[in-house]
Each structure stands twice: as C-alpha cells, then as structure tokens.
Amino acid sequence: MYGNISIVEGPQRELPADDPALLEEFEARIARGEKIEAHDWMPAEYRRQLVRMIEQHAHSEIIGALPEGTWITRAPGFKRKMALMAKVQDEVGHAQLLYSAAETLGKPREKMIDDLLNGKSKYSNVFNYPAFTWADTAVIAWLIDAAAIINQVTNSKGSYAPYCRALERICQEESFHLKYGYDNVVTLATGTPKQREMLQVALNRWWRPIMHFFGPPDVASQHTEKLVKWKVKMATNDDMRQQFFNQYVPKIWELGLTVPDAELAKDPVTGKWTYGDPDWAEFKRVINGDGPCNKERLAVRRMAEEQGRWVREALAKPMAAKYVTPLV
Ligand code: FAQ
Question: Ligand 1 pocket, 53 CB below 6 A?
C-alpha cells in the first residue's frame, strides 16, 4: 500500500478483481484513443504493468549513464568531453522524469531505488556490458540511442499521459545524442585503418546486446499482448526490431561496416528481415543478474546511494532557526 493506492507487486501476485463496468468504460476510452491521467480510474493490472515498465525504464537511464560516464575524462579533446558530459547529464535527467511519472501511479521513488539495488526490479540488458574503447561509446551513442528512440517515439503515442509526456521530452534530447553518436562513428569510420578497425570491433561487440534490447521475440514475450491491448506498448518487440533493421542496417553498410550476422537479410517478398539466433539464453542470463557487468553496475549505484544519503537527509530536515535569515 502506497498512500491510499494499493500496488500489488510482482507478476505472480493475485490482484483484486476490477469492477466490470469501470473496466468496460476504461477499455472503451482506450479504444477511442483517449489518454489516461493519474487521477483517472484504471485497472489494477494496468497500474502494475505501468509501474513495472516505467520503473525499469528509469533504472535503465541511471545505470545507462555508467558505461559512457567512465569515458568523460578520457574522451578525445575538450569538445567531446563537454558533449559527453552533457549527454550523461541528460540520461540522469531522463531518469528523474521517469521516476516522477512512475510516482504518479503511487510507488515512492525510495522504494523504486530499493528494488533496483536489491535486484527485484530489472533494467535494460545493454548496460551490463563494458565500454572498453572510445569506439564503444560511439556505438552506444549512435545505435543504442537509435534503438531507444525507436521504442520511445512509438510508445510516446500510448495511453498513459504522464509517461507519454516524459517520453516526448526524452526523445527530443535523445535525438541530439543520436547526432553526437553518429558524428563520432563517422569520424572513426573515415579515420585511420586502426580507427576503422576499432569501430568494427565495437560494433561486433554490441550487435547482439542491441538485438536483445528490444526484448524477447513476440512468441516468448510475457507482457506484450496485454500492453498492446491497453496501448502502453504501441508496437511489439519484433516490430520494433524490424524497424531498427530497416532504418539502421543500410546506414551501417553505407559506412563500409559489416553487421556481424551472416544470416541477416531482407526478404524481398515480405519486406521482413531474417537474422541468426542472437542467443536468447545469454539475454536471460544478463537480465537476471549474470551479465559481464551486472555486479559492478549495482555496486556503483549502491555507493552513490550511500554517499548521497547525508545530502538527502539534510534536505529533508527543516533548517534550524539560527540559520534562517529573518525577513525584514
Ligand atoms: N532488458 O514480456 P516482455 C535507454 C524483461 S532506455 C532487460 O517482452 P515488456 C536510454 C521484461 O522486463 C532503455 N529486461 O517485456 C539510454 C520482462 O521481465 P519482468 C530502456 C528486459 O515489458 C541510451 C521479461 O523480460 N528502455 O536505452 C528487456 O513487454 C543510451 C519479458 O519481456 C525502456 O525501458 C531488456 N532489453 O517489453 C541511456 C523502454 N526486454 O519485468 C543511456 C520501455 C525484456 O516480467 C545511454 N520498456 N525484458 O521481470 C519497454 O518498451 C518494454 O519494457 C520492453 C520489454 C520492450 C523493453
């Protein structure tokens, strides 16, 4: 129970049955394309799904700041340091917007952070991989931001208004990140043979995690059907992956780079891309805490939580009278 709103957490828990008349009216509103606001009636499962998804999205933004964040001091040149610092700052700002959107559904931010740190809540698979070289940061800023934009522009047309408003603002900032990432990629792709090689190696490293980024194939997705019905997700995982192939594979080829999947091809009849098995077992391991950097990422967040505690406590306390300047 959070305030006067009850959130039954975890997909396995039983939810109270919804009033059938209210549910019917709610689904009619969704069908008419109306937006749902925080104070409107909503089914308990809609609320639970939104909290799960928005919270995971918020965690992904703060954890997502870490692989690139470690490169701020090593970015080549002052201009790139400034640009990367601004990008990392934006990502943390996105988390703020998203935690606020999730809070409108009744779950306090402190509880969300606890659930990230105790491993109850997931965050995006991609941020559990290391950024070994500057080229890794270029691939993250270009292709992971591109993947994020595809997902978020699509879902910004969804049914829950506070989430859609946050996504609209986030997407505007993400499009700057994409340009910044593409600029870095082009610089490396048109640079020395060593720089081109570094870029290709980084692309090879990130390709599979990027395939996983859009979620499991539709046939294996637990939540898609319900979320599409309620217009929280405006496209399925496979549809978004296809959109990514359509938009970005030609751009990757244009730069003279190779996609590390010999089976990747567009079917001329259906217009759909076919691709090799991206190793869904690896995806499962990584999202369940056993990726190359999961432990390190959470350890850094725990340290930040501990070190910032005194600031949060000081801000929460009323200031002692002797420090308050009287108004004259
Ligand atoms: N990573 O039934 P589905 C960014 C989990 S923001 C980890 O298909 P759903 C910005 C899923 O939670 C990146 N876990 O799930 C940036 C569920 O587990 P649960 C984040 C994943 O929700 C850029 C289970 O698998 N974006 O990158 C993943 O219908 C650069 C079953 O899966 C968002 O969060 C995954 N990739 O569809 C920052 C967007 N995929 O909860 C810094 C909003 C699935 O039952 C640098 N979220 N799982 O235990 C969504 O659109 C959806 O949640 C999906 C997954 C599409 C991610």
Answer: yes
Question: Distance between the two ends of the chain, CA-based, in angstroms?
Answer: 45
Model-level pTM?
Answer: 0.94
Nearest CA to ligand 1 atom 30: 145
Residue 176, domain member (yes or no): yes
In a domain, 326, yes or no: no
Residues in the chain: 328
* Ligand 1 and 122: CB distance under 6 A: yes
Which ligand 1 atom is at minimum distance from the Cα of 68? 46
To which H or E segment does residue 266 belong?
Answer: strand 265-266
d(CA 210, CA 297): 18
> Does the beta carbon of 64 lie inside 6 Å of ligand 1?
yes
Looking at ligand 1, which residue's alpha carbon is closest to its atom 48?
215
Render each residue's pLDDT in the chain as its tens digit; 328 residues: 554 456 556 555 677 788 999 999 999 999 999 999 999 999 999 999 999 999 999 999 999 999 999 999 999 999 999 999 999 999 999 999 999 999 999 999 999 999 999 999 999 999 999 999 999 999 999 999 999 999 999 999 999 999 999 999 999 999 999 999 999 999 999 999 999 999 999 999 999 999 999 999 999 999 999 999 999 999 999 999 999 999 999 999 999 999 999 999 999 999 999 999 999 999 999 999 999 999 999 999 999 999 999 998 998 887 777 777 777 6
Q: Does the Cβ of 222 fall within 6 Å of ligand 1?
A: yes
Does residue 304 form part of some domain? no
For the chain, the domain total comes to: 1
Question: Which of these, 198, 245, 192, 241, lies nearest to 220 by C-alpha position?
Answer: 241
- What is the distance, to the nearest Å, from the Cα of residue 77 to the centroid of all Cα atoms in its chain? 28
Question: Domain range holding 36?
Answer: 20-297
